[in-house]
Design goal:
two-stranded antiparallel ribbon, about 60 residues, alpha+beta
């Protein structure tokens, strides 16, 4: 089984209403284990949604041209 760690770091400078002091940084970390690609892609999708990205559709692997 393979272990994956996805990290999203961002700066809170642009947030207007925040209890955290300006120029603070935040981090989202998502760790998971998977055996095959069918298990990895949904985890990546969930990570991106947790980081604030809107995902409309499926994430898939495309052949390189």
């Amino acid at each position: 089984m393979n272990k994956f760690t996805l990290i999203f770091e961002y700066c809170l400078d642009d947030l207007e209403a925040s209890n955290i002091s300006k120029s603070s940084q935040a981090r989202i970390t998502h760790e998971f284990s998977a055996v095959c690609l069918d298990e990895v892609l949904p985890e990546i999708r969930n990570f991106l949604r947790g980081a604030g990205y809107e995902i409309d559709g499926d994430i898939r692997i495309a052949d390189k041209e």
